[in-house]
Amino acid sequence: MRYLALLYLFSSVLAFGQQTTGTTPEVPPAPANAPSTPVSLVQSPEGNPNLLNLSVGGAFVYDDNTLGGYKGGDVDWGAIIDHRLEGGSLSLNYRGDYRDYNGVQGYSGTDQFLAFALQKALNRRWSITISESGGIYLYGASYFSLQPLQTNALQVNPYSFRTEFSSSAFSATYQKSLRLSYTGSVSYFLSRYSGNSPFGMTGVSASGSVAYRITARTTLSGTYSFSDFQYQNLGGTAQIHTGYATLSHQFRNRWNILGSAGVSRSESSGTINLALSPILAQLLGTSYVTGHYDTATIFPYFQASASRQVSRHTSVSISGGQSVSPGNGVYLASKALNASGYFSYTWRLASIGFGGTYNRYGSVSNSAQAYRTAGFSASYGYPLTQHIGLNLRYDFIDYSTPGATINSVSPFDRDNRFTVGVAWNSKAVPITLF
Questions:
Q1: pTM, rounded to two decimals
Q2: pLDDT at 23 (0 to 100)
Q3: CATH architecture of the domain formed by 2-425
Q4: Residue-level pLDDT at 4
Q5: What pLDDT sits at residue 201?
Q6: Where are the domains positioned within the chain?
Q7: How many Å apart are CA 287 and CA 409, to the nearest integer?
Q8: How many CB atoms lie within 10 A of CB 150?
């Protein structure tokens, strides 16, 4: 139920961030999205372009993990506002929850999330998009289930019991003709971690793209992006340059496909403390020497996605790719490989959804050892009354570092989670996680 608050806004936010007047959706510039499970409606609730929905719910949770598991409950609440303006849209989303799992420290506590998005056509040629979001997540809000929200720079982090982030973005599009358009964007991102994650990050990104509509259903574009990341605790810096081309096409059978290919270059620099052997340490009078690193890495950038609105009630999507992300508080700039797939079906107000993700990260700055996450979720929602619904959910997530164990710094590396809850909504909207 806590994911219901993302139900409508982020389908709008993603559309705002990836569409401009007269152009087709495009893969966002590096850093690319971390794993996510978009929460959206298959169709607009009650056919109304304006939406105000308040929600509150409670759930019982049973968790079986490698440390023996736990059980407990949570209470969540939220508000969604979506308003269609003349030539644009305005969205506001708030979600909060409190959970208590047998008083276990780190598992119990509160999550908070707030997001705002404005899209507006200024005139016949110019349009702008402004978005702002921020949140507090326990264990990255991703350890017990597939993550409901990932901004362009927020990664899964099981090392930190508390993740705080803030993200701001602005983009402007100039529609030169019916076929040709130009888009420029800037964004600012900040992340902070607690526990065993010392490297919080502050970053800025800028990108520019040119899109040309070849036919009514096919668009070709080229994009260049630059990102600069500064890490806490003398973690160093990273600069990411990415250039890529994107081709998108909408088939008459409702399939939408998109593919991007290009090159990324990562430049990382900083200082590192090197441990000395006991003999050298005795001779030099110190156990460590400080050295400077400055590395550059070039590798392919690619993204691909396919989605289909099978009917008014059914949708399916798959996506995957490789890009550079700024890190997760332990790893610095990282090469990220990801794949995901989702299916949802609604009838009347009931819904069923399935989704899975796979992600592999390898740092290009401070570590050569890669780690991966994989997860699966299934959810069923059923309306008990017009405004009260029952939700059943199962989540599985696996986190592992090849050839190593993370139990010394992380709660567990494999988790099965079962949730049974009831939610009240001021609007009669279906609950679907995918």
A1: 0.75
A2: 32
A3: Beta Barrel (2.40)
A4: 34
A5: 86
A6: 2-425
A7: 24
A8: 21
CB 97 within 8 A of CB 77: yes
Query: CA torsion angle for 376, 65, 192, 226 (degrees, to 10)?
Result: -30
Residue with tokens 């009078």: 285
Average pLDDT score over the chain: 76
pLDDT band of 334, cuts 50, 70, 90: confident
| pLDDT one-digit tens code per residue, 175-190 | 999 999 999 999 998 8
* pLDDT tens digits for range 34-81: 333 333 333 444 445 678 889 999 999 888 776 666 788 889 899 989
